[in-house]
Here is the input.
Amino acid sequence: MIIRVWIRCLLSVCLAAVLLLGSPAIAQANPDSGVLAKAVQSIEELDSMRSGLASYLETDPEQPTAETMKKVCKPVGMKAQQLSQENGWQVKQISNKYRNPAHAPDGPASRKALARFERDAELMGFWQAETLGEQAGTRYYRRIDVEASCLACHGGRAGRPEFVKNNYPEDLAYNFKEGDLRGMYSVFMPEMQAALQDALTQS
Ligand code: HEC
Here is the structure.
């Protein structure tokens, strides 16, 4: 299932409604549609959180300090972990040009997904059946694009803040331009867990 840019603004509201109310075709393709809708919405919130933090830093009249600088992308990673724990998912950020090595592609499926976003700038997100480890489930991918406010830390190599230069010696996440693909979010929802959750919400 593919999500294109033009429905981006409607994403969390309409998509969730369609999935929850159950268009028969979609419901059949995605038996765990309630869980999927929740994942889509959670990722929209996560992405807005980062954009909000980055643009606040940009427009804040106070000079950003080392501390405020750290409060943009690190909290996104922490929130992703929290979402994983709360829902039994695996929520990740993945990029070919990663800053934190934990965000490198984790296999052929995520490499392919990144290449797909790279090829098709209109592709906002998609999901597919996948097996991760031994576990069958659904995996949702959502693109992350570079905005002007990201360049303070992901622009030219020399212009990166000191804490980035010091803490990420193998950093690859620089030299981006506005509109470039920065990476993607990935949410793996195991089948069993989804089935259980559906059963619980229906009872
Ligand atoms: C104040 C500096 C700063 C700004 C501004 C910033 N980032 Fe980051 N970004 C970082 C740091 C530091 C990390 C590594 C965090 C970690 O260790 O998990 C990172 C990591 C990431 C990652 C995870 C993949 C990786 O490379 O490890 C993505 C995706 C990302 N940033 C996207 C963005 C986007 C999109 C924006 C603008 C909306 C942005 N960043 C703005 C500092 C920043």
About this structure: Residues 22-29 have pLDDT under 50 and may be disordered.
